Amino acid sequence: MADDLLNEIEALGTRLVEARRAVATRIIGQDEVVELSLAAMLSGGHALLMGLPGLGKTRLVETLATVMGLSGSRIQFTPDLMPADILGSEVLETAADGTRAFRYIEGPIFAQLLMADEINRASPRTQSALLQAMQEREVTIAGQTRKLPAPFHVLATQNPIEQEGTYPLPEAQLDRFLVKIDVAYPDRATERDIVLATTGGAEADAPVVFDAATLIAAQGVVRRMPVGDSVVDLILDLVRACRPDDEDAPQTVRRHVAWGPGPRAAQALMLLTRAQALLEGRLAPDPSDVARLARPVLSHRMALSFAARAEGVELENVIDEVAARVTRVERAA
């Protein structure tokens, strides 16, 4: 590894320690959620936060925008939300001399960190307005393509239990999320700390640690970080083993999985393992990173068959079984 890259990785690691400490001033507990969110941003991707109301998802996104020094925007998705409410629209204005011209008014999507709150409450037509933005970092309005700010990240939230009045996200849009993050209930001790910290006279303010330019540079460091051949092979083995029509797929996948992850899952694992290593102060990812990230990367990119759902099979258990099997084979080799 070149000395300049080594120095950049070490300097970035120190700054990430500061960022995690800054986030912790407002987010108590939820260490894994914070870590995965930061990893997604370091990888230049988007994250889908799955959790019940009141678990701090909105607070987390607001805190991340502050700590990372990004311009933030929030969209509350509802059934009557229209694409123009996200992307913006052209309005006809009359000048003082009586001439008329169209002027484009930017929508809330023109932000560096966009919070899409309860994204599954909007209609498919409105959800699709995000597809081009999430993949290509640009939007096309009235025939004109407009670039979004850099960096551009979407952190979307979704309530996993309320199904009435919701529209499931299509597979193409789910695949645009680098990672799906499950936000669980805190334990008793953590909940006690939350209650005491948030019901007093004043709450702590999170300091700014990054800015847009520094984050973009950090994303460049992540992409230059070396990855060993064993880790690359493990990523490919894991992703391919989760496809039911692959010749190397284990029996549990062939029996229970309707469709598996595509190449974008392998790309996500490659980036996230590097970011995970950085967050833990290491110079390169190892096989344990792949196994740890299997659920967050794969669970929204594959689906159980109808028979498997009827039998009560859990997709997460299938992923864990495949990850354990692939890791075991890699160690034996």
Summarize model confidence as the mean pLDDT: 89
Largest sheet: 5 strands, parallel
> What count of helical segments does DSSP give?
15
Low-confidence stretches: none
What strand line-up does the widest sheet have? 2-5-8-1-9
Strand content: 15-25%
List keywords for this structure.
333 residues, alpha/beta, Rossmann fold, Helicase, Ruva Protein, domain 3, 5-stranded parallel β-sheet, two-stranded antiparallel sheet, 15 helices, hydrolase, EC 3.6.3.-
Indicate the topology.
Blueprint: H1 3-23, H2 31-42, E1 47-51, H3 57-67, E2 72-76, H4 83-87, E3 88-94, E4 100-106, E5 113-117, H5 124-127, H6 131-136, E6 138-141, E7 144-147, E8 153-158, H7 171-174, E9 179-183, H8 188-198, H9 212-224, H10 229-241, H11 251-256, E10 257-259, H12 263-279, H13 287-298, E11 303-304, H14 306-310, H15 315-332
Parallel strand pairs: 1-8, 1-9, 2-5, 5-8
Antiparallel strand pairs: 3-4, 6-7, 10-11
Helix pairs in contact: 1-9, 2-12, 10-12, 10-13, 10-15, 12-13, 13-15
What does this structure look like?
The protein is α/β, with parallel strands linked by helices. The protein has 2 domains: 224 residues, Rossmann fold (3-Layer(aba) Sandwich); 108 residues, Helicase, Ruva Protein, domain 3. The protein is built from 15 helices and 11 strands.
Write a concise synopsis of the structure shown.
With 333 residues, this protein is of the alpha/beta class. The chain has 15 helices and 11 strands.
